Amino acid sequence: MNKILLYNPNPNPHLKAIDLPLSLLCISRFIDQENYDIQIVSENLYNNPFDVIRENAKKSIVFGVSSMTGHQIYDGLKATKIAKEANPNIKVIWGGWHPSIYPTQTLENPYIDIVVKGQGERALYDIIKRIEKKEENFDGINGVYWKENGQIQPNADRPLEDINTMPPIPYHLVNTEKCLIETEFGNRTINYVSSYGCPYRCGFCCEITVNKRRWTGLDAKKVVDDLEKLEKVFKVNGISMYDSNFFIDRQRAKEIFREMLNRKLSLRLGNMDGRTKQLVESDDELWELMRETKCYSILTGAESGNQEALDIIKKDITVEDNIKFAKKCHDYGIKVVFSTLVGLPIANSNFKHIAKKTDEQITSTINMFDQLLSFDTRHRGLMFLYCPYPGTPLYEESLKLGFQEPKSLEQWGAFTLYAKHTPWITKKQEFLVPMISSYLFMFLDSDTLIWIKERIKNRPLKKKLFVSAFKLLRIIAKLRWKYKFFYFPIDYKLFLFAKSKNKSI
Predict the structure, then answer these.
(1) How many domains does the chain have?
(2) pLDDT tens digits along 484-496
(3) CB 339 within 8 A of CB 300
(4) What is the domain-level CATH number for residue 32?
(5) Domain range for residue 343?
(6) pLDDT, tens digit, 9 for 90 and up, residues 169-218
(7) 164 inside domain
(8) What is the pTM of this model?
(9) At a CB cut-off of 8 Å and minimum separation 6, what does 444 contact?
């Protein structure tokens, strides 16, 4: 039996990988049906993942990597080099968001043989079948790019396939116990995805390029089949939803909630992604069903408290939609995590003008956060510096304004999505935005202490010290937010130091 080796790179060098490697489980759907020997490797599944790769690459025909832009590229290249050195004949296949945007540039790396652009389930199956036949040509497999005689060969793009035609996610391929995490909505939470794609046109999002504004969702009963299996077989009590937009088909969402009630499932859904305008306009039945199933939280791209910024993004919502949504969620007992971004590129502007507009975006968004928190102290705000992401409309505008894009896969590996990359962001803005997002709101959020205490419950002394420090910092954070005093950030610097020493938080 031929062995397939798959690797899920760590997306953040400062945090320990904790999630279920969903992308690799999903692309294994078809090959698992034929009982291939599939080994999935990630940092949370093995203590020494690179040693596991080095040993198992020797007897594998394929080494697959799924990668987003950023540190996953760096980590994935390190693993790829190890696999190729252990077995020069192994075929290295890369897929995921970044290779789907830059398939040719990805293939320019000497260690990578094949790239899958877009959906990878059927493509990987077809590739493996040809490799087994000792074929070097992958012509006709949509979405696949490969190297032949040193030349990069492309195929046509692969249309987004209805995921209802695919086998269930093969959870048995990994030790799910090592992928369970503590959250405020369940101390045995696991990540799950029920749909692919998004039809909207947000200017910062690469869904436009990768999935071409298409969407496919798993039928409601199949979704609940998965949820029931996770609850009854794997004893999961919380589901962190990873859909790009869970509420695209609101009738489907209702059917999922009804089916959960019919089967008397007790697990809770959290971080469901949805748009404020569409959910505010939804009927009461959807909201009542969310309350009955005890849905915990919705993650939404509020994007900004500044209407001009929302229009630049082409978000097709208003600030008032965000406010109404926050109130509606409070009325139905649902927490909201509001994601926002500042520092957008503005066409035909100089850096001074954009920096001024960025200050306005920060101020407006802080004011919006104040309104959101007035409804519910559990609501949480996230603020990020705009990061030019390849394959998006605003990326092209950023290039015109002087953004220096990485020129190779290796350079993209050093491209962190949470750092300053645009020349118009000031040092003050560069410091203030992550302070608000990753520090102040961590302590303003009354739920934070719940899940952190769970993650360090087996270390009593450390837990006691942390809880004491947390309560002190929460007082400071509340005072800073109340008076909007962001100067002399000694407490923030101490927080960053402590965080750098503990990858579990």
Answers:
(1) 3
(2) 999 999 999 988 8
(3) yes
(4) 3.40.50.2300
(5) 180-386
(6) 999 999 999 999 999 999 999 999 999 999 999 999 988 888 889 999 99
(7) no
(8) 0.92
(9) 373, 377, 380, 474, 477, 478, 481
